[in-house]
Specification:
With 206 residues, this protein is mostly helical. 81% of the residues lie in helices and 0% in strands. The longest helix is centred in the N-terminal third of the chain and has 30 residues. The protein is elongated. It starts with a helix and ends in a 7-residue tail after the last helix.
Length: 206
């Protein structure tokens, strides 16, 4: 189960019908024009919600083994981040946009609704915590795995750099395929961690 969550997100990032930096009105228009792809995005997000947290806990506990402070910090941040995903506009805007498109709501109105959702303090905070948690938290977990030499260096560094690459290809230079590949690095790193724990179950104990 460990690599399923990041693999699901990798596919989401590869097929997402809009860019992260798009305005909510533009996002709503693109979702309305690509409802089939958006339906797959929502199902895969659901899979990620079910599997990312157990995966993060497992890999985070592995990271704590030989780098307890760094691993614990990364685990807490990543856990908090992914716990916030469902409550945030990051996942919520997709649901709203698809539902609105299905009943014929204009993208302009849908965009205003999603803007208003993001302006609710608790939802805005959750969105920010998600971003902080999954970018910084997974980065720290990867560094802890590398410093602790629990995984091969290449696998640990895949986890460490994957989310920086995700930021680059989601926001700075938006390219869906490369963004998906960035999350794919996380999935590969998580898979290596899972195999390490299967071979030596005591590795996950700390």
């Amino acid at each position: 189960m460990t690599p399923i969550g990041p693999l699901a997100i990798a596919i989401v990032r590869g097929i997402l019908p809009y860019y992260t930096a798009d305005s909510n009105t533009t996002m709503a228009a693109k979702v309305a024009a690509h409802q089939g792809a958006e339906t797959i995005v929502i199902w895969l997000t659901f899979v990620a919600l079910l599997t990312m947290i157990p995966g993060v806990i497992a890999v985070g506990m592995l990271a704590r083994r030989n780098a307890p402070r760094l691993g614990t910090t990364g685990l807490v941040l990543a856990f908090a981040g992914f716990m916030c995903l469902f409550w945030s506009t990051v996942a919520g805007s997709d649901n709203v946009a698809l539902a609105a498109a299905r009943i014929g709501t204009s993208p302009a109105v849908t965009g205003k609704l999603v803007d208003a959702m993001g302006a609710i303090p608790a939802i805005g905070l959750a969105s920010n915590l998600f971003v902080l948690g999954h970018v910084v938290g997974l980065g720290l977990i990867g560094i802890a795995l590398w410093r602790g030499r629990v995984l091969p260096a290449w696998a640990a560094l895949m986890i460490a750099i994957s989310q920086l690459l995700h930021v680059v290809f989601a926001i700075i230079v938006p390219v869906h395929a490369l963004d998906g590949l960035a999350w794919g690095l996380t999935a590969v790193g998580f898979a290596v961690a899972a195999m390490a724990m299967v071979r030596e179950p005591s590795l996950g104990e700390s």
